[in-house]
Amino acid sequence: MTDTSTQSPTSSTAHEGSGAGGYVTKGQEFNRDTNYITTRITADGRDGFPVEPGRYRLVVARACPWANRAIIVRRLLGLEPVLSMGVCGPTHDERSWTFDLDPGGVDPVLGIPRLQDAYFRRDPDYPRGITVPAVVDIPTGAVVTNDYPQITLDLSTQWTAFHREGAPELYPERLRDEIDHVADLVFRDVNNGVYRCGFAGSQESYERAYHRLFDRLDWLQERLSTQRYLVGDTITEADVRLFTTLARFDAVYHGHFKCNRSKLSEMPVLWAYARDLFQTPGFGDTTDFVQIKQHYYIVHKDINPTQIVPVGPDLRGWLTPHHREELGGRPFGDGTPPPPPVPSEVVDPEHWVTDGRAH
């Protein structure tokens, strides 16, 4: 959930820091703001926002791992016909994510150039970071929620009337306690752990985060050595949450965030697990490596002052055999894979790995 607040990245509003200011506060560790707009869109409309086809717009950026989760879940569940998606560009300034990929730099549904316009429509004095993903109420143009952990859970549990035939159960009730437990560990030590490394303001805070990260990755390697997925024998919310960090690991976190004990491609079990998911419809086909690298290396100017975007790494390995099917498991349980992405949402082939590398 990327933040474009002008406040310090260790303040109460920080997620990925400020576009114009710094991401690192000298002598301090990185603390992520977890105060979101917690209004929910539910089947019963308890918060005043009932699930309705065509009423809401999911605003994302493909570069952002937190938003990428929502893209994956929406696609796996087949919600494209009822929940439209607006895509911001990979970079932003200190004010807001912008719709610079759209003609004229304006979202064609919301009619706004900046995501902050939807936040200010809800609250003209909105004091926190302008973050993705966000769900916007199209009739009013106001943000309903940016509570990214809850957004994907609600897509699974509240939008069931509009799931495609064959949609998987990503948050089955019988496994929710275990999914929540694993997802919490992954969030604290991996999803957020890479940021604690990258935005550390002292050697001590960096080393603490570094060891927590790789200790958890070792734990995940052991867990996944005997089972295909994190919880149960099918893909769940927990796998979605881990995948988006793993997909960015070698391209960004290993070098840019100094998470350099090992590359993902040097951790055999996690690398095979990540390739298994990448080659599963809904995961790799929502991943845009060019936008990912542009975001981190261009926006984080105090970490990468030249704003030079690396050419590597070589991405051909993502499409190599993973052999994880030998562990059993059924990716979609009793369901089926999603159909191909709608044409307007296909990742640019030159930003993918079809020829062996992202351009």
Describe this structure in words.
One of its GO terms (cellular component) is cytoplasm. Residues 1-27, 320-359 are annotated as: Disordered. The protein has a 4-stranded mixed sheet. Strand 1, helix 1 and strand 2 form a beta-alpha-beta unit. Residues 2-21 have low confidence and may be disordered. It contains 10 helices and 4 strands, in the order βαβαββαααααααα. With 359 residues, it is mostly helical.
Task: Give a short synopsis of this structure.
With about 350 residues, the protein is mainly alpha-helical.
N- to C-terminal distance: 26 Å
Strand order of the largest sheet: 2-1-3-4
Please state roughly what percent of the residues sit in beta strands, choosing from under 5%, 5-15%, 15-25%, 25-35%, 35-45% or over 45%: 5-15%
**Would you identify the regions where 5 or more consecutive residues have pLDDT less than 50?**
2-21
Q: Identify the overall geometry.
A: globular
Order of helices and strands: EHEHEEHHHHHHHH
* CATH top level assignment of the domain at 174-351: Mainly Alpha
Q: Would you give the CATH topology of the domain at 174-351?
A: Glutathione S-transferase Yfyf (Class Pi), Chain A, domain 2
Radius of gyration: 19 Å
Helix content: 25-40%
- Quaternary class: single chain
Work out the helix count: 10
Give the rounded overall mean pLDDT: 91
CATH architecture heading of the domain at 174-351:
Up-down Bundle
Active site: 64 (nucleophile), 195 (proton donor/acceptor)
Domain GST C-terminal: 172-299
InterPro entries: Glutathione-S-Trfase_C-like, Glutathione-S-Trfase_C_sf, Glutathione_S-Trfase, GST_Omega-like_C, GST_Omega/GSH, Thioredoxin-like_sf
Binding site for glutathione: 97
